[in-house]
Structure to design on (596 residues):
């Protein structure tokens, strides 16, 4: 039981004894005492005044006196208007620190019942390399998986690769027309970058054709449909679905280039998957499900042969499921992939990490799955997150104005190396250590900046701001961890090992007891982050912990403390803080250095 729950119980007993008021413990409001007031926890007294028949201040005074006289946990109190601020026994904090240090997996729920949560993230197209938007998606998905695992779920991390469709055919056609046999080896480009180059080339040539047709008097809409390139791409898609050997061979070759490139990017970013699905392998399952729905009268066919779902009675619109030429759309693939996943895994909860521009898509998907008879359809979770931009504005893949994920990561690592050198933080490090620290700090800065923001909000990523060694940044947190580890190494050199419980009855300062209290909140924070699907909850908690520790480090001696028991307590406290920093950052997919 945590401290807040204990206080709720003793206040429950107090108001029962004083005012014959019977409440559930959960009805009693407890909050952390504001920093400008003395105390550790605050009880809101307004709900008791009617039964007490006294003012909020007098009620608080009476309850405070009762608690101080009848419970050794409470050593003092003050009343500010209707708020009762309670001071907790210093021995309680010492006892709590010992419990934190002795807990094998402090903060994590290791008693889950192995129910499966599948988390889908990344979902790239094989016509271009991963970009800044994919970075936010991958980091959110990976972190959510880490957090849910810490909350007792058995997590399956999955990826659906959109490896077929008209957009894929655009890159293929452009390479066939303009590529002259270029390969990753001959060009020196990563395979995903090479294929992305031809996606841009298609768009340039396609726009030129549209412009020419409009000069001849055709409307823009008609020109877009009639341009030879788009018609060739559509013919290529039909040929692919008919397994034309030449088209299929080209598709396999270019996708192979892309997959090799993706693997490098994922490895550098530090994310992985337990199972990868491919649209090319699931869309037929989707088409089969659509045909099944057609037979059952769930869907209908129009005169041109296209298949639709009429969702107007559900407050939505009509949704295309199969085109007139028989080719499938994203929704078809998602239906097939969902059915396949649930046949392979006993999934309790399915989470899709997809940007908020797809909110409507997932509303429709949940409804369609429900109509097709899948009992779990309406329980799908669309983890909807906001878009990420740079200070310069939005990005467009087809115009080649995206921020490439590989380039951004490399830039972050280079910037971290330069910044750390300028600040003198790598003076005692070997070249190998410098490179490893630069990687940790550069990627840590990128990841933390992305994850500290409420995922529902749009955000602007500022590389320069993210790499700062001060403030709410990854490098600031990483440097604090390295600082603590340095102190602990020096203590070990003096023969002090921080594994033995601390002595109780020590004269703790408010700053020290506040740090223990903040540490004790970690399990609650992990649980809250899981319930809200929000890595930002973890990120901002870790920052608050680090900020509090740095104030303590500034105000108090550790290794130079003359009282050996107090010195030992501060070392154990520091070790506990370092451990929670490491655990919290690991939930965000961020490494923390031992030295820096």
């Amino acid at each position: 039981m945590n401290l807040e729950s204990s206080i709720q119980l003793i206040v429950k007993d107090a108001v029962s004894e004083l005012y014959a008021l019977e409440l559930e413990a959960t009805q009693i409001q407890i909050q952390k005492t504001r920093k400008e007031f003395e105390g550790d926890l605050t009880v809101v007294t307004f709900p008791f005044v009617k039964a007490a028949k006294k003012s909020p201040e007098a009620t608080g005074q009476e309850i405070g006196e009762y608690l101080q006289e009848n419970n050794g946990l409470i050593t003092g109190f003050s009343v500010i208007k209707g708020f009762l601020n309670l001071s907790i026994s210093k021995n309680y904090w010492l006892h709590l620190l010992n419990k934190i240090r002795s807990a094998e997996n402090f903060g994590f729920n290791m008693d889950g019942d192995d129910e499966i949560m599948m988390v889908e993230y990344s979902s790239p197209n094989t016509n271009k390399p991963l970009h800044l938007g994919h970075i936010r998606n991958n980091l959110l998905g990976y972190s959510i998986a880490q957090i849910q695992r810490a909350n007792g779920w058995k997590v399956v991390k999955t990826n659906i690769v959109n490896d077929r469709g008209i957009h894929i055919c655009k890159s293929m056609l452009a390479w066939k027309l303009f590529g002259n046999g270029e390969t990753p080896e001959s060009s020196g480009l990563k395979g995903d970058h090479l294929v992305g180059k031809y996606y841009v080339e298609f768009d340039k040539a396609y726009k030129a054709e549209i412009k020419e047709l409009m000069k001849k008097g055709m409307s823009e809409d008609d020109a877009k449909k009639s341009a030879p390139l788009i018609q060739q791409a559509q013919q290529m898609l039909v040929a692919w679905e008919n397994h034309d050997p030449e088209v299929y061979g080209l598709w396999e070759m270019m996708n192979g280039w892309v997959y090799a490139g993706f693997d490098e990017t994922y490895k550098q970013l530090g994310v992985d998957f337990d199972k990868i699905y491919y649209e090319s392998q699931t869309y037929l399952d989707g088409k089969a499900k659509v045909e099944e729905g057609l037979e059952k009268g769930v869907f209908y066919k129009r005169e041109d042969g296209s298949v639709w779902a009429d969702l107007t009675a559900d407050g939505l619109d009509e949704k295309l499921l199969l085109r007139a030429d028989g080719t499938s759309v994203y929704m078809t693939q998602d239906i097939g992939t969902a059915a396949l996943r649930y046949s392979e895994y006993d999934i309790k909860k399915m989470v899709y990490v997809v940007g908020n521009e797809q909110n409507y898509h997932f509303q429709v998907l949940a409804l369609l799955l429900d109509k097709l008879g899948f009992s779990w359809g309406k329980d799908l979770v669309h983890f909807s997150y906001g878009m990420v931009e740079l200070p310069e504005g939005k990005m467009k893949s087809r115009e080649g104005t995206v921020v490439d994920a590989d380039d951004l990561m490399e830039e972050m690592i280079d910037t971290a190396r330069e910044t750390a050198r300028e600040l003198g933080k790598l003076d005692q490090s070997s070249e190998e250590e410098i490179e490893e620290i630069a990687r940790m700090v550069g990627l840590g800065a990128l990841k933390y900046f992305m994850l500290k923001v409420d995922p529902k909000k749009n955000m602007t990523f500022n590389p320069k701001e993210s790499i700062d060694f001060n403030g709410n940044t990854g490098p600031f947190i990483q440097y604090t961890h390295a600082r603590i580890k340095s102190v602990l190494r020096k203590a070990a050199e003096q023969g002090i090992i921080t594994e033995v419980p601390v002595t109780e009855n020590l004269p703790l300062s408010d700053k020290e007891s506040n740090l223990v209290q903040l540490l004790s909140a970690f399990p609650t924070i992990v649980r809250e982050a899981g319930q809200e699907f929000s890595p930002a909850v973890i990120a901002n908690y870790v920052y608050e912990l680090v900020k509090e520790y740095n104030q303590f480090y500034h105000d108090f001696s550790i290794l130079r403390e003359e009282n050996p028991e107090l010195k030992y307590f501060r070392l154990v406290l520091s070790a506990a803080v370092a451990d929670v920093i490491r655990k919290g950052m690991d939930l965000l997919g961020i490494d923390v250095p031992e030295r820096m």
Summary: The chain has three domains: 3-88, 121-389, 406-587. The CA atoms of residues 338 and 369 lie 9 Å apart. Residues 394-400 have pLDDT under 50 and may be disordered. The first helix runs from residue 3 to 19.
